From TrEMBL:
The keyword Signal applies. One of its GO terms (biological process) is cellular response to iron ion. CDD domains: BtuF. Residues 44-296 form the Fe/B12 periplasmic-binding domain. NCBIfam families: TroA_like (NF038402). This is Iron complex transport system substrate-binding protein. Pfam families: Peripla_BP_2. Keywords: Signal. Residues 1-24 form the signal peptide.
Length: 296
């Protein structure tokens, strides 16, 4: 009897990769610094992270998305697309059955061995993980090239660039606010200045109290936060409306952020995904820091 692994490999190897001669080859460089070329714009795309899903839709190629992973909830129509597991464990048989012509992978989030298997069987994998505002805009444009939606992608990338430039200009001369951003609760985690969220804080005139730490997403503890004594604490939570992470800090009356009523909730999907919605999240961040300035 053939092994399950062989059946998966066989299914993947039978994916339709041939292109009509009516189309020209399209190429783009991914965030792993590899050039990925397709014989024609991709008509069937698998997006293997919620952020990748948003980026493909932003590039104007939402109607070509045939597979997503759990928590791919934006735009709303993405919720109706078949799911192929989670970003940390893909259902390879399900993925194969959906016959993608292009897979959008997450550089540090997807299982490398699974993406390597997909790629070894002839299905192109385009790795994405934007680490800057320009990286987000560029990702949209590059996906537009591979999906044949170049003009839509260019317009959306320009809108994002213009919006971020406006934020930089508006808050360039604002007084600084010392901020702790909580990205997770157990274990307690934050971000450093190299993280994209750290760059948002900087654009709004914030100073990340843990910005100098080496790791992109460092683990810390309550004592570290108390010692840093931030003027404001920003956090998401387990869901788009769950403020539970912020209530944890109400037990520490010595915190400047608590005394000044500067515990601010930000819906995580607006700030923790490297997508065009980061513009909305950045504006919200900046509004929160303006409130912190007003509370002095």
């Amino acid at each position: 009897m053939m092994s399950r692994r062989f059946l998966i490999a066989l299914a993947l190897s039978l994916l339709p990769m041939a292109a009509s001669s009516a189309y020209a080859e399209v190429c783009a460089t991914d965030d792993a610094e590899r050039e990925v070329c397709l014989p024609a714009p991709a008509e069937r795309i698998a997006a293997l992270s919620p952020g990748a899903t948003e980026l493909v839709y932003a590039a104007g190629a939402g109607d070509k998305v045939v597979a997503v992973v759990d928590y791919s909830d934006y735009p709303p129509e993405a919720r109706e697309v078949p799911k192929v597991g989670s970003h940390t464990r893909l259902d390879m048989e399900r993925l194969a059955a959906l016959r993608p012509a292009l897979v959008i992978g997450w550089v540090t989030g997807n299982p490398p061995e699974q993406l390597e298997t997909v790629e070894s069987l002839g299905v192109p994998v385009f790795y994405l993980e934007p680490r800057s505002f320009e990286g987000v805009a560029s990702a949209i444009e590059r996906l537009g090239e591979l999906a044949g939606t170049r003009e839509v992608a260019r317009r959306e990338a320009a809108r994002f660039r213009d919006g971020m430039a406006e934020i930089h200009e508006r808050y360039a001369d604002r007084s600084s606010v010392r901020v702790f951003y909580q990205v997770w609760d157990e274990p307690l985690m934050t971000i450093n200045d190299e993280h994209l969220i750290g760059k948002v804080l900087s654009a709004c005139g914030g100073v990340n109290v843990f910005g100098d730490l080496d790791r992109l997403v460092p683990r810390i503890d309550d004592a570290s936060v108390l010692a840093a004594d931030p003027e404001a604490i920003l956090a998401g939570g387990m869901g788009e409306e769950n403020r539970q992470w912020l209530t944890h800090w109400e037990q520490y009356p010595s915190l400047t952020a608590l005394r000044r009523d500067n515990l601010f909730f930000v819906p995580p999907s607006l700030i923790q995904r490297p997508t065009p919605r980061l513009l909305e999240g950045s504006r919200l961040f900046c509004e929160k820091l303006e409130k912190a300035r007003a509370h002095r």
